[in-house]
Known about the structure:
The chain has 586 residues and is of the alpha+beta class. The protein is 24% helix and 40% strand.
Amino acid sequence: MGKKGKKEKKVTGAEKTASKMEKKVSKRSKREEEDLEALIAEFQNLDAKKTQVVESSCPPPSPRLSATLSAHPEKDELILFGGEFFNGKKTYLYNDLFFYNIKKNTWVKSEIPNPPPPRCAHQAVVVPQGGGQLWVFGGEFASPNGEQFYHYKDLWVLHLATHTWENIKAAGGPSGRSGHRMVLSKRQLVVFGGFHESTRDFIYYNDIYSFSLDTFSWSRLFSSGSAPSPRSACHMTSTPDGTGVIIYGGYSKVRVKKDVEKGTIHSDMFLLKREGKEGQEKWSWSRLNPSGSKPPPRSGFSLAVGPAGRAVLFGGVCDEEEEETLEGDFYNDIYLYDTVKNRWFPSVLRGNKTEKKKRRRGKKGGAEAEGAEKEEGEEEAAPQGPTEVIKEIVTEDGTVMTIKEVIPSPQEQEDEEEEEEEEEDDGSASAPQVEPCPRSSAMATVRQGKLYLYGGMFEVGDRQFTLNDFYCLDLHKMDQWEVLIEMDPKTQEWLEESESEGDDNEEEVEVKGAEGEEEESEEESEDEEDEEEHPPVQEGETVTDYQIRTEQYWIGLARAHMGPDAKDKKVAKVGLAMAKVFYEDQ
């Protein structure tokens, strides 16, 4: 009895400590949130003036991250809500609502009276009842300078049949937070984790709440077993039988000393299992040890649920903290998790089957059957020998945008040259493989077995690129990405802080503006002069041959751009990419 009592006392003590910390954070952030409440109220007053639903055809949504993209439960439509955009000087939060018609490839903006106030890092879940509903919980609002935060604890439902927003007022729900996760498990919305941050303090959560879609009431779930540590932005999916949820990864940080914080990227997995009759349920945590190949550690990945209950993980970023610097490696790979077999595996695109058949038919005759069979087998295997490079698009201010590409091996290029004539006879040529560039905080969802990916962001140095490109991938075929909206780097807006000598005042400088045309024209002429000095491309030289021949020159140029502190590996990648960009421009 004594041991049991001690254990209960320890649990209670931990809960008390967490409660004290939450009160401390809430107290310090209360003043900040009161300031922001006035700004949020202004937005709500403007929205209150709308009295009827207005729908209009529109171009694709503006660049953003940390919005939600959901599949309509009954129609071939996707629903995008909210999000965030930062241009270097100012933070913008959205509460706009868009519907994407999959068959027509068109966007409609829907302005509905009394919507939720602007937010990002919230969660949205679609349920089929009542003609379809979109449930939205939590998220955050930030001041224009990005230094103050307001964390929502409100719950909203968008009735898709009537196009009306409803604010659900139910007591006993989670505290204000963002970066949490919410999924549908039978007739309950299950909320886990997240964080709350003020200017000076922060707290991460690992509590669990459920909202009943029958009684419209919140319940905090108390569980047994070893729970995940507090975290935000994890991968959370419901089990196929609806008896629990699975947690993977996430991010948290702790303060190691005054003004010094240390971030942790989690890669552990847990199962929260529900047992017992309705109304008498018991919940328990257990650690999962999946087979297969887990994704490398990362945060900011996108997640969706694919066919057969498989969880889909795309992209993300792994930040490398070194003393006072923070560098991120961004990803654009896909990993699938089989919830039934408890197994991770990386996804490899198979390529276009039609093009494969053309290549096979294009082989010269005279080969023995055995050799031909071997050739076909090799065609089906993972491609060998291609060179992976990072394509860099240099903007007008000298910033380099990073896009990963794969250059075929010399042998593949020779094969393509041999088959070129036959492919022309067939009336088509093989298109280069396209894929989304590496990114984090993109929006993803699955509809009819297809993965849709919108926006997100990546960084180059101190500059952030926010995207509004749009891709689609058939998860059954796994052949190739389809580009629905292409990214245009020229539309990227970025404002910087500059200081004049002897003047401490800050001024905004728009990178892509009409101001400073003289300086820009001078820079352009300098760039043209520089281009003339680059090693010329020799006649008949492939891009791979050119990169090998001029490697040292381009690495030296990349080093000059990136500075002496940049890592050799990254400098080499950038140099290789600069060589490819120059080659393609010739």
